[in-house]
Design a protein that fits this description.
Oligomer: single chain
Shape: globular
Distance between the termini: 40 Å
Low-confidence stretches: 1-52, 164-169, 201-229, 267-275, 303-308
Mean pLDDT: 78
Number of strands: 18
Structural class: alpha+beta
Largest sheet: 9 strands, antiparallel
């Protein structure tokens, strides 16, 4: 079998720094990125007003904290500087509280990058609550008074959680102290400088605020003063001081806290899915974390320029992973010595140095803050070795498509017949390109998303992310290539996300938009 090869390097460079270089603070270390890409997508808060919007809003896992009260910012900063534990918070809707007597095992280390600058605007209350949930209620009057707010941010690095128990599990066993009400652990804190003003640009002298050395306390200040005539201004850190590069601490005057990333403690990622998983596992036929899919016969879907790939296909019953293999799962295998370490760079034939630099920032590697994201940048042999170490294997192309189409339901997409949108799939929206994209809205993720983030996009049998997020390796192919299925966060073509979407790449290729899931043979119940 020969399938047309689509080289990653052929992707337009419009994905360059705006998309591939992603990832700003939230668990990206030296990744290159665009700050605005990490502003949460606007939620549908129609019917809710004022602080009531916080009861409707989802607690974002990467909230901006530029309008967070000084006392809480100070508590957060002092705990980070102690360096002997990770910060635990109570976080619900638009409110967050640092639990000063509760800690998680681990520590933070600073990782610097060359400064990144981004400007954005906020023109509606929905945007305000989606982008700056912490403190949005206090800004709502300013937005109404001035009509729009402008946000300029300069990013120079992040304090990232490393080691500790987070890579294994975030549950009560990972916490120490008085932790009643704890909901999340802070895993990343991006730093730099910011200025939030009325869109007219009018500003006033700002007051001071406590903070990290060279950061909030020594920046331009965090006070607020506004009138309709004078405008509105909130700022912290000095952008002029952000040009210096340091790998172990922020430059003097450019250490304001901009955004944090949090991980939920004992998250409930779909009660129904968990119940189904437990029910099937209890029968003893499928490994934990997989579901049983009955077999059948089907005619493969056509897929755009690649066309149909064969006649009727027969598939036996199988167990398939509910989600793509995660960073945490792969890391456990690597620590046990059964798998090689997850790569932190991309590679394929004829890749340029610029492409390698840009796109390697999207590799999740073994980053603590990405433990629930799919492991990516792995070659076919690494993916196959992982599955074999778990007693399984990679799926064939026929098995993958049978599961994606919902078996005899013959779905066009894993979720059904609706056209792709940011509520269904992690693909290429406005966050990766303004000129060429699949949908003209942001889906909230520049690169990978946590597995299971798109609940409405689930397939039959509660299968997650069969479209988008990352392409998935299969067994099918020829001597030098293997077929990928499912599309990815870079997909701008609807055909890639359909159940017949496919691409073939070389066995050795390692790309940020490639991951995998495993399958197993069902066993007889005892």
């Amino acid at each position: 079998m020969r399938v047309a090869r689509v080289a990653c390097s052929a992707r337009p460079l419009l994905f360059g720094l705006g998309l591939c270089a992603v990832a700003l603070a939230a668990a990206c270390g030296r990744s290159r990125g665009n700050l605005a890409s990490h502003l949460a997508p606007t939620q549908d808060l129609a019917g809710a007003t004022g602080q009531a919007r916080c009861g409707v809003a989802k607690s974002h896992d990467r909230p901006l904290i530029i309008e967070w009260p000084s006392a809480e910012r100070g508590a957060l900063e002092s705990q980070v500087l102690r360096g002997d534990h990770l910060v635990v918070v109570r976080y619900e809707g638009c409110e967050m509280e640092v639990l000063r007597r509760c800690h998680a095992r681990g520590r933070y280390a600073f990782s610097g990058v060359q400064q990144k600058v981004d400007n954005s605007s906020i023109r509606s209350a929905d945007e305000l609550y989606a982008k700056i949930p912490l403190g949005a209620a206090r800004l709502e009057a300013e937005l109404e008074r001035h009509g729009a707010l402008s946000l300029a941010m300069t990013y120079v690095g992040a304090y990232e959680a490393e080691g500790g128990g987070l890579i294994e599990a975030l549950d009560a066993d990972a916490l120490e102290g008085r932790c009643d009400g704890a909901t999340h652990v802070v895993t990343n804190l991006s730093v730099g400088a910011f200025k939030l003003t009325s869109a007219s640009g009018a500003g006033v002298k700002a007051g001071a605020e406590v903070g990290l050395p060279g950061g909030v306390g020594e920046g331009a200040g965090g006070g607020v003063s506004s009138t309709h005539a004078r405008g509105f201004r909130r700022s912290d850190g000095d952008p002029a001081a952000c040009s210096g590069y340091s790998d172990n601490r922020p430059p003097e005057g450019c250490g304001a806290l901009l955004r944090i990333e949090v991980e939920a403690i004992s998250p409930s990622e779909g009660t129904q899915r968990g119940e189904k998983d437990a029910e099937r596992s209890a029968k003893g036929r499928c490994p934990r974390g997989s579901v049983e899919v009955e077999g059948g016969i089907f005619t493969p879907s056509s897929s755009g320029e690649w066309g149909s790939w064969g006649g009727n296909q027969s598939v036996d019953g199988l167990c398939i992973g509910i989600h793509e293999v995660t960073v945490a799962e792969y890391s456990r295998c690597a620590r046990a010595g059964a798998c090689s370490q997850a790569p932190t760079t991309v590679d394929w034939a004829e890749i340029s140095d610029a492409e390698r630099e840009q796109r390697s920032g999207l590799c999740n590697g073994s980053k603590t803050g990405r433990r629930k994201h799919p492991v990516n940048c792995v070659s076919w042999h690494q993916a196959e070795s992982y599955c074999r170490a778990q007693g399984g294997r990679l799926p064939t192309e026929a098995e993958w498509e049978w599961a994606a189409r919902g078996g005899d339901q013959q779905r066009s997409y894993a979720w059904g017949e609706d056209d792709p949108d940011p509520e269904l799939v992690n693909a290429c929206g406005r966050e990766c390109s303004k000129n060429e994209n699949l949908f003209d809205r942001r889906d909230g993720h520049h690169g990978t998303a946590k597995v299971g983030s798109y609940r409405r996009g689930r397939g039959r049998w509660y299968l997650e992310d069969l479209a988008g997020n990352v392409w998935e390796w299969t067994q099918s192919g020829d001597a030098d290539e293997r077929v990928l299925r499912g599309g990815s966060f870079w997909s701008i073509d609807d055909e890639e996300l359909r159940v017949g979407g496919r691409e073939a790449v070389e066995l050795r290729d390692r790309r940020a938009d490639i991951g995998f899931r495993c399958v197993w043979e069902p066993t007889q119940a005892p």
